[in-house]
Amino acid sequence: MPSTAGEIQRRDVQRHLLTLIRDFAAEQSQGERRISDLKNRLVDLQGQLKTANASLEVAKQSREAAEHSIRGSEVELSMADASVHALEARTRLLQDEGLKKNYRHFNAGKTTLDAKQNPRGTLQDVEDRLSDTNFQLDALEGKYQEELRVHTEMLAEVEKRAFLGEAVIEETKQIKELSRYPHCRIIVLASLCC
């Protein structure tokens, strides 16, 4: 029996050794698979990072173009605003001149009326001049209103461009914020692999 017991013990040792070898091989294979999976994941994340960086670059270019457009719109807006102010000043000046001219014509007509003692003719002249001046003022007011309408439309278009430019800038900021997250994951995975 000693040979059988020694043989059984030897077989148990061999089985135990074979089990240890199989376990070691399985663990090694499993570790290699994990390393391979992590490397593949790292490659995927690097690809995502490249895509995110490309999107970020496009967003930056869009933002720069939008900022440039906004600056141009602001210049147009200030020019339109200055033009509106100039038109308002011009209209006030023309109205003041028209009123002064009517007053001078009225006083001249009054003096002529006193001098000629012909109230009907001189009064009719004054009324005609006043009517003509009012007609001219109405024409100038119409031109002013038309120019004001055009400038108001230009102002609305510039404000619309500014709003759209601000929206593009906000979207760019959001894209930039979102693009930061994959980068952080790649750094964490890279530190785990190494």
Automatic annotation (TrEMBL):
Q: Which residues form a coiled coil?
A: 35-62
Q: Which InterPro entries match?
A: KIP (IPR053327)
Query: At the top level of its lineage, which domain of life is listed?
Result: Eukaryota
Which UniProt key words apply to this protein? Coiled coil
Name of this chain's protein: Uncharacterized protein
The species is Spirodela intermedia
